Model the fold of this input.
Amino acid sequence: MLKGQLVFAQLTAHLPRPAFNECVALYAGRYPTLTFSYWDQLLCMMFAQLTSRTSLRDITTCLRSHSSKLYFAGFRGSIARSTLADANERRDSRAFERFTLHLIDIARALYARESLGVQLAQSVYAIDASTIDLCLSLFSWAPAANARAGVKLHTLLDLRGNIPSVIRITSALVSDASFLDHLRLEAGSFYVMDRGYLHFQRLARFSDAAAFFVIRSKNKIHHKVIADQPSDMAAGVLCDQSILLTGRYTRLGYPVPLRRIEFHDAQRDRTLIFLTNNFDLQPLQIAQLYKSRWQVELFFKWIKQHLRIKAFVGTSANAVKTQIWTAIATYVLVAIIKKRLNVQASLHAMLQVLSLNLFEKVPLERLLSEVSLYDESDGSPAQLPLL
Done:
C-alpha cells in the first residue's frame, strides 16, 4: 500500500470538488456516467496538460503504466482511449467552462493585492484576442481566412496577477471588437486595448458604465481640438488634447469629448496616439497603462508554448473547447497553488518539476519550495511576473 499522498493527488486537492459537481449537474446528460466520470475526464485532461501529452493514446498509455497508483491519484474509472475520446466528443464542454471560471474567481481573489506597476487603486484589464490555427480538412466547422481553419481566444486579462477574467472561444472569423459586447463593465476600472478594438459606438458603453478605456488610435481620425493641455516634450508627451470626433459616423457613435495623447517612444523611435475617456491621469500614466497591455500578449505566448492547445486530441468543436478550458483550468490551478504555498519560482519552472513528479510521494510544499533553488529564469522584465 502507498504511504502518503501522490503529488498529483495533492495538486487536485486544491480543486473544489463540490463546485465541480454543481457545474456538471447543470450540463450532464439524461443518463449518469457509469465507469468513467466527469471528474475522471478532468483528471485525464489535466494530466495531459501537466505532462505535455499530445494524443489520446499518449494520455491513456502513460496513465495505465501507473495503474497501481491511479486510485491513489484520484481516478476511479477505467482509463481507455475510446472512452476518453467519447467523453470529449459528447460531454458538454460548458461544464468545464463554468468550472474554469469558478477557479478564475478563486485566483483573482488571491491575487487582488498584487502590484500593477502603475500607481492605481482601480482594477486594470487588458483586452486582446489570439487565433489558434487548425487544419481545415479536420476542423471544417472552424473556417478562417485564406482556406485555413482556426478558433479565436478572446481574453480579458486582470493585470493584478495576470489572471484571465473573461474568456470567449469563437470562430476565427469573428471580429475582435465584438468581444466588447459581452463584457460586464466595472465602474471605475480601466480597460486597455489595441486599435483593433477601435469601434466608437462600443466604446461609448464604457463611458455610460462609468468605466475608463485606453486605446491606441489609428492615425487618420477626423476630429477637432476643443482644449489643449501643456505637454512635456522631455518626457515624450507631444500633445495632450480634448477633442470631439467629426467623422460622419464616429461623431454619432461617440458624441462626447475624448482625450487624445501623442506619445513618442524614444526606445523604439515611434510615435503612438492614445484615446481615453479619462481626463484625470497624467499623460505618462496613460502611456504606462497602454504599455502594460503587452502582458496579455505574453499570456497568449506562454499558454501556447507551455500548454497543449496547439495539438488537439479531438476534432469536434466540443472536444476542442473541452481541451482549451481544461488547459486554462490547469494554468489557473498552478497559479492558485503558487499563491497559496507562496512559491517563489516561475509557473514555467513549477510545471517542469511537476511534470516529472506527479506520481511521486513527495510533500507538494517541499517539492515546490525547492524549485526556486534551481530555477534559472533570467527574471527579464519582459516576462509576466506570474510566469
The longest strand covers residues 124-134. DSSP finds 14 helices and ten strands in the chain.
